Amino acid sequence: MPRRPCCKRIAEVPGVTYFKPRAVPMSLLEEVILTMEELEALRLAHLERLYQQDAAEKMGISRATFGRLLDAAHQKVAKALVEGCALRIEGGAFHIEGQERCEHCPKE
């Protein structure tokens, strides 16, 4: 049985959680789902311009896990842009920085 995923720390939930190509009806679009922690990895690496080790520490995860999150986020965003898919931001195993951790977090 796989172990429960560790919650990653994110700064905040984004205000906008859906993007789609203009003038294409929703019924014709494939959706790509980007998790909250993948979005946070993109934000820390590209907007904050942090090194992976520093960004991983901010999220409370290992550098290797951060690298996997960032790679998954790059693949999903590239697919949405190149293939004209809608991009939905939702889900994942996370808690918001400054709030109490959820019951699933093994670490304090």
Word description of this protein:
The model has no long low-confidence stretch (mean pLDDT 90). The longest helix has 21 residues. With 108 residues, the chain is of the alpha/beta class. It has one domain: Arc Repressor Mutant, subunit A (Orthogonal Bundle), CATH 1.10.10. It is built from 3 helices and 5 strands.
**Average pLDDT, all residues:** 90
Reported for the largest beta sheet, the result is:
3 strands, mixed
* Low-pLDDT runs: none
What count of domains describes the coordinates?
A: 1
- Indicate the overall shape: globular
Q: In CATH terms, what is the architecture?
A: Orthogonal Bundle
State the order of secondary-structure elements, H for helix, E for strand. EEEHHHEE
The CATH C-level class name? Mainly Alpha
Helical fraction = 25-40%
* Strand order, sheet with most strands: 2-4-3
User: How much β-strand is present in the residues?
Assistant: 5-15%
Task: Describe the structure concisely.
With 108 residues, the chain is α/β, with parallel strands linked by helices. It has three helices and five strands.
Offer a few descriptive terms.
single chain, 108 residues, alpha/beta, Arc Repressor Mutant, subunit A, three-stranded mixed sheet, two-stranded parallel sheet, 3 helices, 5 strands, 15% strand, globular
